[in-house]
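[09:14] KT: can someone run the structure on this one? pasting the chain below
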Amino acid sequence: MDIQEVSLRLARADLKRITFSCPRKEAGMDAEQVWKKMVIRPVFIKNQTMFQAEHFTRKQAFQRNYMPEELSGLIKDMLENRFLELNASWPGCSVLVKISKKGKIYYKESPEPVADTELSLSQNREKRYRIQQQDILEPLMDLGVVTKDGKIVASRYDKFRQIDRFVALIDDEIDPNQETIRIIDFGCGKSYLSFVLYGYLTRVRGLHVLMTGLDLKADVIKKCNETAEKYGYADLHFEVGDIAMYHPETAPDMVISLHACDTATDYALYNAISWNTKQIFAVPCCQHEVNAQLTKRAAGSLSEYGILKERFSALLTDACRADLLRSEGYHVDVVEFVDMAHSPKNIMLRASKIVSRNTGRMAALQAKERVETAMRTYQVKPLLYTMLYPEQAGAETMDATEDRP
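[09:31] RB: done, structure tokens below
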């Protein structure tokens, strides 16, 4: 099958949408000329069905309407000169087309009847989900969250919302003028969120993403690399390694740490700060360190009730982490990652590096002082503080000891 035949097959009257992605970047082409994405959809103008093509450059969006008989020629032109991939959909059917660097065409048509137990993404656009029907990502299909034509499986609706929330939180913080982004995912595990994020950023946002996942389990990492190869995610790699000992060849623009247990989150944050990472997204888990340090004298009634002590320790740990990020020149938000009804571990620390260290200098000093006050009050010593300020950590420990009767 060649591009001409593909174009004729796709130019159907009942077409719902075509999304072109993976832009071709020819030698000598200015960055402003590269089309990041193109979407074709039917429109009804003056009692006639036409097809509206909207393409996006780095800073602008352009629209043009085409007659039905012009559709196949437009598709052919886009595949030959602008893009290497497209997703097309019709009622009950979808097509994925990929063109390799050697010009080989991969064509996959997936008929899928609409079941009563499925919800259409397009029918829920009022909810403003970041992942829409045109963004049919293979990881979501493998997870059983969506069907091949982009319908959300009703029993997996909560999982889809969590994934979409994760993508949106990260997408909102990316510089719209950024073309290439390096990401490290610490404690990646099975990496289903890494796969979804990589697919979204490359195929929907049109970014060049260089992403590395790190985990201690060799069998899990082997499986992740095999999956990345299956999806054709060329610049998504996974390595076996310890967060505390990891040193990348090139510093990342973004660090992600989701549910890294206990102090592994602290090592992830410390590494990100040391590398002057622009964006940090951390969802802490199992904060045992401060819990073990809290004494009855310092915690009072909280120490009498295990569940209250555990929750207080987690909140105190994350509050200190947020302020320590601020003390190092980051703007920090503490946001709800998923609804509390679905997971008690629902706090995300979202941090962005402030361009100028002079901006917010006083706020940074105050944030550090708040941590030190909490350390003296509750007689604890968070690991992240000891790594960032090792000399002062010793003094704070002595002060806390002297305060005790």
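[09:33] KT: thanks! Residues 306-327 form the longest helix (22 residues).
[09:34] RB: yep, looked fine to me
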